[in-house]
Amino acid sequence: MEFETVRPEEIEKRSFEIITEELEATGIFLDEETSFVTKRCIHTSADFDYATTLSFSEGAVDEMKRLIRSGAYIVTDTNMALAGINKKKLSAFSGEALCFMADEDVAAEAKERGITRAAVSMEKAARLDSDVIFAIGNAPTALVKLHEMMEQGIFTPKFVIGVPVGFVNVVWAKELFLGGDVPYIINKGRKGGSNIAACICNAVLYDMGQNYLP
């Protein structure tokens, strides 16, 4: 491996070129409609497993763009994911990113009921006065609560990004939405994280502006 001279403004573009080259060298050719999302997840994590585990419902990217254009909220389950979302680009569509995990009322209610703050946060988000894109990168209980509210007929999310990372109930919680009626971007298996949830949001936001990825 040799040192490669790349201008600072070209580093990200070159990174995506390398990702494409390495995928194609192993015989992996991504779906054109969703490849930019998958490649950004690989770029964020340096983990090529996302090429085979990241799953999209039919027309997922177009539906997420439609929701963003309509001014939908993006609600995360961690302040880390919230910090990672490009809020300037989101605000261009009159959207807003929110996280309720640190709210005092959420913490108090979660303690009183003996459930996670993530679950209570989902209930709070369900009461918002606009459509919501849920970007879940940490807590499988957030996905479980969303699915529970669906089954009870209380609330149906407009879109779910389900990429919590971990070992306890993570795979099972993701599978609740795979193949379902709610549009989704789900990463099968244990991998994911707040950074991946944010980067999926950013991938779509960036593509709504300009898409220079190969």
Walkthrough of the structure:
The longest helix has 15 residues, at 11-25. By secondary structure, this protein is an alpha/beta fold. The two termini are 23 Å apart. It has eleven helices and six strands. The chain is globular, with a radius of gyration of 17 Å. The chain has a six-stranded mixed beta sheet, with helices on both faces. α10 links the parallel β5 and β6 (184-187).
Radius of gyration: 17 Å
**In CATH, what is the class?**
Alpha Beta
Task: Tell the overall outline.
Answer: globular
Order of helices and strands: HHHEHEHHEHHEHEHEH
Question: Between the first and last Cα atoms, what is the distance in angstroms?
Answer: 23 Å
Q: In order across it, which strands form the biggest sheet?
A: 1-6-5-4-2-3
How helical, in percent, are the residues? Answer: 40-55%
Question: What is the name of the CATH topology?
Answer: Rossmann fold
Q: Specify the CATH homologous superfamily.
A: Cobalamin biosynthesis CobH/CbiC, precorrin-8X methylmutase
The second-level CATH architecture is 3-Layer(aba) Sandwich
For the largest beta-sheet, the strand count, sense and barrel status come to:
6 strands, mixed
User: What structural class should be given to the helix and strand makeup?
Assistant: alpha/beta
Low-confidence stretches: none
Q: Please, what is the average pLDDT? A: 93
- Domain module count: 1
